[in-house]
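JOB MANIFEST
job_type = single_chain_structure
chain_count = 1
residues = 211
[input]
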Amino acid sequence: MQRVDAIAGLTLGQLAEQYQFKTPDDLLREKGWTGQLIEYVLGATAGSKPTPDFEELGIELKTLPISFKGKPLETTFVSVTPLLNVTGMTWQQSTVRKKLNHVLWLPILGEREILPFHRTIGSGFLWQPSAEQDALLQRDWEEQMELIALGRVDEISGHLGDVMQIRPKAANSKALTDAIGPNGQIVQTLPRGFYLKTSFTGEILKQQFQL
């Protein structure tokens, strides 16, 4: 948290310079650069493993682009959605729950007109879901995972879920993966990911900063 406090108020550009972190020419195309920079500076170790970013601490890092008014600008990716062998999976054992059990939220001013290099880092804070928040996440997870288990993955859209949605996560429409089809057969579909809705992350910010 001392490291987190030390970077509050800096721009991403200042931080990259300070740590001599390689900056791509076109940051708008390099969506992952911000997260990589912050992970590097704060010492996250997990990389792309399905464990929290700070493995020894069991804490997941989430950067959160916010507007001038302090509202989240986009949904927050949590983890890849399993599409095969999902029978018997439980919320308690799920990657989503492990990732969201303890989160370091780092708000970053992300209005479109501000170039990524000039975006300011806000005050990071630690968060754990309340019993009520955990129940909401569990319900969304279970309802949507049940559709996957029943071979109805194509019925899932971003409209489902009160606080968490499943939607495609792929570089392009050719990046297909296996899933369970309507009759239990294997079908090809786009990879999916779990995303927190902005209404949910907005509430987290409100609670933290009494907005």
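[summary]
The mean pLDDT is 91.
Helices lie at 2-7, 12-18, 33-42, 95-100, 131-149, 198-209.
exit_status = 0
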